[in-house]
Design goal:
388 residues, Rossmann fold, 20% strand, alpha/beta, Dihydrodipicolinate Reductase, domain 2, 2 domains, binds NADPH dihydro-nicotinamide-adenine-dinucleotide phosphate, 6-stranded parallel beta sheet, globular, 8-stranded mixed beta sheet, 16 strands
Length: 388
């Protein structure tokens, strides 16, 4: 029996419990995992899942496309761009067939392209929801960059669209695949250092370009909180392994004339059960990149904490000694593995929505000057399991 990868994938997506034969593999029940969660063997190029990038800006160009040259389960198969020059440049550089090059008008035609399995949305924030939903409607699995959208409501629409299409949705939370951050999760949750009492983190960079979409509320949804402060919130939650219960926040923009639409600087205190607290700060007027955990019997710190490479960690016991990894390659390969094994991603849309709910509460508190309670229902309260 000859069985293509695509036949196999369509069986997985339809959830059929049949037994299938795969090239190079013996008979398998597709309800079982193909291999250990540690990772599948590298697939031949023709068997790798095809990824199409939507929005060829700095992150897609500088990080994701190069990372896709290192992935073992997926490959760069297509692009969607509004800039004709990039069509030509990328087509040549990555040897892309013309049939896999789209613009924003032809985007929906990806539905007919079997060469593309995953759409990776790398557009300005307020475009994430629309392009992720249209990708799901085209029958594709989706990776969407952070922040997932610009409102919790849009996040839910994205989740609904993926569910309706029977496709997977994940958020580009690359640090879940980074060893120092994973160690922070272990230290915070296993109580190696005692009970977590206090966390603090800053993620800031100076943004001096008045024309940047990041300063346009319509496109960005918010300021540094949505852009990079989200990493501090993420670190707080994956270190604690618990949901926050309330937040208090302050807009501390130093030069409001430079930030007519979004905040320039914001500070918040996110409260967790048992009086644990995360002190967070994010700014477009300053520089900072760190995270620290204080526990009853010791501390742990990452500095820098959120970079693409060069992350370093120290603890009250001993310095962290972990390799640098290609975070984006690991993130994309893990998503491909989830598709191939019909597994749940550790960075699902539900996590993106959870973070959006927290950021909306931070903005509400900064605006009203009042503490805002956070009360997640079961589906909204997604916490990444530690052992994965
Ligand atoms: P860029 O401004 O560099 O790129 C955005 C691209 O989107 C543009 O180059 C353009 O691509 C396309 N685009 C379509 N419509 C518009 C529009 N109206 N205004 C501007 N661009 C438009 O942004 P980044 O690459 O830095 O960020 C993109 C997304 O990735 C953001 O959501 C950001 O939060 C996220 N990101 C995530 C990072 C991470 O570490 N996970 C790091 C950096 C960014 P084209 O010309 O091809 O149409």
């Amino acid at each position: 029996m000859s069985y293509s990868r695509r036949d196999f994938l369509s069986h997985l997506s339809l959830g059929l419990g049949s037994v299938v034969a795969l090239p190079g593999l013996t008979m398998l029940d597709n309800t079982k995992r193909l291999s250990s969660a540690a990772g599948l063997a590298e697939l031949p190029e023709s068997e790798k899942l095809g990824v199409a990038l939507v929005g060829l800006g700095r992150y897609a160009t500088g990080q994701i496309a190069p990372a896709l040259q290192e992935t073992t389960l997926c490959r760069l198969a297509g692009i969607v761009t509004g800039t004709p020059r990039k069509e030509e440049e990328w087509g040549r550089k990555y040897d892309l067939p013309e049939s896999n090059i789209y613009n924003y008008e032809t985007y929906d035609q990806i539905a007919d392209n079997d060469d593309i399995d995953i759409i990776y949305v790398v557009l300005p924030n307020s475009m994430h929801a629309e392009y992720s939903i249209r990708a799901a409607e085209a029958g594709k699995h989706v990776i969407c960059e952070k922040p997932m959208a610009t409102s919790a409501r849009d996040c839910q629409r994205m989740i609904d669209a993926s569910q309706k299409a029977g496709r997977k949705l994940s958020i580009g939370y690359r640090l879940h695949f980074e060893p120092h951050n994973k160690e922070m999760m272990r230290l915070g949750r296993s109580e190696v250092l005692g009970n977590a009492e206090q966390m603090s983190g800053t993620h800031s960079f100076p943004l001096n370009d008045p024309g940047a979409w990041r300063l346009d509320k319509e496109l960005a949804g918010g300021g540094p909180l949505m852009d990079v402060g989200i990493y501090v919130i993420q670190a707080g939650l994956y270190t604690m392994g618990q949901l926050p219960t309330s937040v208090m926040a302050w807009d501390e923009t130093q030069n409001p004339e430079n930030f007519p639409e979004v905040e320039g600087t914001i500070r918040w205190e996110l409260n967790f059960p048992k009086d644990a607290v995360l002190y967070g700060e994010s700014s477009y007027e300053d520089r900072g990149n760190n995270f620290r955990l204080e526990a009853t019997n010791g501390w742990a710190e990452l500095s820098p904490a959120y970079s693409y490479s060069g992350i370093r960690g120290d603890t009250s016991e001993e310095p962290m000694d972990f390799p640098q990894v290609n975070q984006q390659a690991l993130q994309m390969d893990d998503f491909a593995r989830c598709i191939l094994e019909d597994d749940r991603t550790i960075v699902p849309g539900e996590m993106g929505k959870r973070d959006m709910i927290i950021m909306e509460a931070i903005y509400e508190s900064a605006e009203t000057g009042r503490e805002v309670s956070l009360d997640f229902d079961k589906e909204e309260g997604y916490i990444r399991p530690l052992a994965e």
